[in-house]
Design goal:
Structural class: mainly alpha
Number of strands: 6
Strand order of the largest sheet: 1-4
Strand content: 5-15%
Order of helices and strands: HHEHHHEEHEHEEHHHHH
């Protein structure tokens, strides 16, 4: 546990404690799923806070085991890349996005079946009021947020090879994500009945995809979350490079101007700096692995000179 990043560890602890509390309080007649699970927004037991609380509840041991294993395995990596604040913001937003998607799916079902036209509904051989029936439409679980984390890993480390049971060979992360999307789409289109909110999983991934794309196009927009160690390294490298350029500019004033005119020198230095700045921006947006061999060599040469 000491090697797990702070925010990932806290999320694991909160989820496990909520899982234990669900069974302990149930013996006292308190139903946490009914209070904190995400109800259909037209149901009488729906509350806005449930968009957050539902993602910390789970329906069984297998449910929480898969989610927490994936959170530990992939969340630890993503938090180290982004830092705790940005990671938590992303996690919560993906969970909320999954909940919003599930609400939309339920509303489509509600409208297509014209449930509002009936005062009573028969479900499982039991007749109940329409309000009692739609109150049963409750969603719980961190799967939407976790699927968002899986997507983030696949986008940041697309070529990372992973061993996934039962395949005896490694699979690139990007193909693993594509496989998960295909499975969830197929399961969702096969019809309800398995008790799994497949569209909520896809909703979590969709919201995560939109956030990552936005951050890639607007890298400065996430500066309020704090900088990760990797970002600090490249920022320090850039500062050292700028300082070295200033020193060279000062020395250039004392060199023989016949070798190179001031205009030629400044043009060459400006072009060189623009190339390094472009490489550093590319790392912030797409990661170090996105660089070409030529770009890596140039960055390495500049770091040695710094």
């Amino acid at each position: 546990m000491n090697n797990i990043p702070t925010m990932t560890k806290n999320l694991l602890v909160v989820n496990v404690l909520a899982f234990i509390a669900t069974f302990v309080l149930e013996r006292s007649g308190i139903d946490l799923t009914r209070l904190m699970g995400l109800h259909f927004f037209l149901a009488s037991e729906f509350h806005v806070y449930q968009f957050v609380t539902y993602m910390f509840l789970h329906g069984g041991f297998t449910h929480i085991l898969f989610n927490m294993f994936a959170l530990w395995m992939f969340g630890s990596v993503i938090e180290r890349v982004w830092g705790p604040k940005k990671f938590l913001f992303y996690y919560i937003c993906c969970g909320i996005g999954a909940g919003v998607t599930q609400e939309l799916v339920q509303y489509i079902t509600y409208s297509m079946e014209n449930i509002s036209a009936y005062q009573y509904v028969s479900a499982g051989g039991v007749q109940m009021t329409t309000d009692a029936y739609i109150n049963l439409w409750t969603t719980i679980g961190a799967s939407g947020a976790v699927y968002g984390i899986l997507l983030a890993f696949g986008m940041i480390f697309p070529n990372e090879r992973l061993f996934i049971i039962p395949f005896p060979f490694p699979i690139k992360a990007k193909w693993l994500i594509v496989g998960y999307i295909a499975i969830e789409l197929f399961s969702a289109m096969s019809g309800p009945g398995d008790g799994v909110a497949h569209m909520a999983h896809l909703g979590g991934m969709l919201f995560g995809f939109l956030m990552i794309k936005y951050w890639q196009k607007h890298p400065d927009s996430s500066s309020s979350f704090g900088r990760s160690r990797g970002q600090e390294f490249f920022d320090n490298l850039k500062r050292k490079y700028d300082a070295r350029q200033n020193q060279q500019n000062m020395k250039a004033e004392h060199t023989d101007p016949r070798r190179e005119t001031d205009e030629e020198y400044n043009t060459r230095q400006r072009k060189n700096q623009e190339e390094v700045d472009a490489i550093l921006d590319k790392i912030r947006k797409s990661g170090y692995d996105s660089l070409t061999q030529e770009e890596k060599k140039k960055l390495f040469d500049q770091s040695r000179k710094s």
